Amino acid sequence: MDALYTAVATANGREGRAVSSDGQIDLALAMPPALGGNGAGTNPEQLFAAGYAACFASAMSNVGRQMKLDTKDVSVTADVSIGQDDTGFGLGVVMRVELPDALAGETGRQLVEATHAYCPYSKATRGNIDVELVIE
Fold first, then answer.
1. Which of 4, 9, 63, 71 has the least CB density, counted as fewest CB within 10 Å?
2. What's the pTM?
3. pLDDT tens series, the chain, 136 aa
């Protein structure tokens, strides 16, 4: 792969800070209450959910152009869960894609599946974590 851009961030654990090299991100990190923390900061799952949802929506815009479909009213929500698996902890994602009526049915399903094949986050997670696609 020839990198077009490289994001750089540094963190010191779930109870610390995450800072990007350009200063655009400077966040307190905290365990969520569901995992025994105080929730007084963001957490890696929220950051991953935001990144994946944004990337998927952007990828859908690109795929939609290729398919000659209008995707301006599409909304993507990523539900990222963490839980125990056989080796410790693992992640799961439910990708909720809200489509306008004009993209309902088979056309929308084809768009979402083509986007899942194209999206860099989807490629990175494929075979590593469960990703469920839900069209709403």
1. 4
2. 0.94
3. 899 999 999 999 999 999 999 999 999 999 999 999 999 999 999 999 999 999 999 999 999 999 999 999 999 999 999 999 888 999 999 999 999 999 999 999 999 999 999 999 999 999 999 999 999 9
